[in-house]
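User: Hello, can you help with two protein structures?

Assistant: Certainly.
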Amino acid sequence: MIEKDESHQLLAEALARLLREVPIDKLSVTDIVSEAGLSRATFYRCYYDKYKLLNASYDKVLARTLYLFPSKLSWKKAVFSIYSEIKGDLRLYQNAIDSRDINSLRNHIFRISEGLHLSVLERNGIDVSDWKTQKLLESYIYGNLEIMCAWIRDGMREPIDEMQTVMDMEIPSCFAGYFLGGEGVRQPGRTVSCQ
């Protein structure tokens, strides 16, 4: 009998192989389990749907890249590392990113990005319950997400560091110091207000 961890790994690897050929919305659970050599019952013991499998695989990439901010990597290095991972398996991400399903990778990335940004701001004393703060952050994240998805879809032709510079320019100026200022912590004597 296959252990649960091994099932997760086999399903993730099967999905990755398939995504290098077919968009996520055109794949079925049957396709994935056939590729993995597992049963549908095994799939559904592990995941609710194919999007949850994709998102779990993406979370593992985040654990070794973006989630290292601010403890081990600066914002620039953490973001550069996630974009490098995406570019390294570009076809997979091109086929994964365009779905508009409620559980899609695109929506998952938005939720993760929002949570990460809010946690950094909250750690630095910003009132994240303020509706203006929330809407300012949402507009920044939505805009960057759309630009990132188009960049991936178009083959990431622009260099990562140059695209990252453009996208970082859109961080609301009142929040930029917490991300671009080095370690994601409040700078002594710096007051920040977006109001």
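That covers the first. Now for the second protein you mentioned:
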Amino acid sequence: MAQIDIGKLKPTWKSAYNNSTAYVVDDMVSYQSQSYICKLASTGNVPTNTTYWDLIAAKGSDGTDADLAAISGTVQGDLYYNNGSAIARLAPGTSGQVLQTGGASANPSWGTVSSDWVKITSTTISSNAADVQIDNIFSATYKNYVIIGTNIKGDTQDSYMRFRFLNGSGAQLSGSHYRGASFGGENNSGSGNNSQHSSAGSDSDIAGIQPAGNVVDNVRGGFNFVMNIPDPFPNASTSCYGTYGCIRNNGNSLGGTFHVYYNSNTATRGVKFDYASGI
């Protein structure tokens, strides 16, 4: 009568290879980070001996980069990449830098954004605020700054926007040194274009961008402007220029230009805006 060995209907895992163990067919072992299965009864024959063993699973290539081997102990922000022959570590860049590629035959690196336009900051006012400060934004990195204001409304109907530069400590620059003017025109369907102008600050401690009539309609869209600030760091006589547009409370359209500079030997680092109701 035939005998069936139930225990040998499937391979048997024997853990790590032992040179003194007697292995039989279908015993499996691990050896040098790889797996082998016995195909001929064996004692003392290492698994790399193909007469007695077949390879089941082979390991991958060993890593050679020391930083990759100790990745748990490296700095937050580290990146790892293939440098063409091994895994290499790219340490974190400085704040504001971006990851750049040098092409298919070069390694990645950190670099400063060199685009003509770089968004530095933004703010949204969802409720009444006494003022808005855009501080600590000027540096030697950029030579020209553009501030765009959209749908700005004062706390009263008949008011206009004002601003001051901020000094190197973030304090407002005042002291009767603002010089400049704004010029504009008004248009309605009945009378056509009306050239008008108003002061933007003449020997005053605060500058104002004043449309004709000093009236901005909060219901019909508020005040909109684009302000250019050329080379404010470390320029000691900061200036700005730009355009504005708004609607008067009678529905007329207003638009114009402005230019202001601060006539004093003080460097600046930001701008503060408010409305003519006071600071």
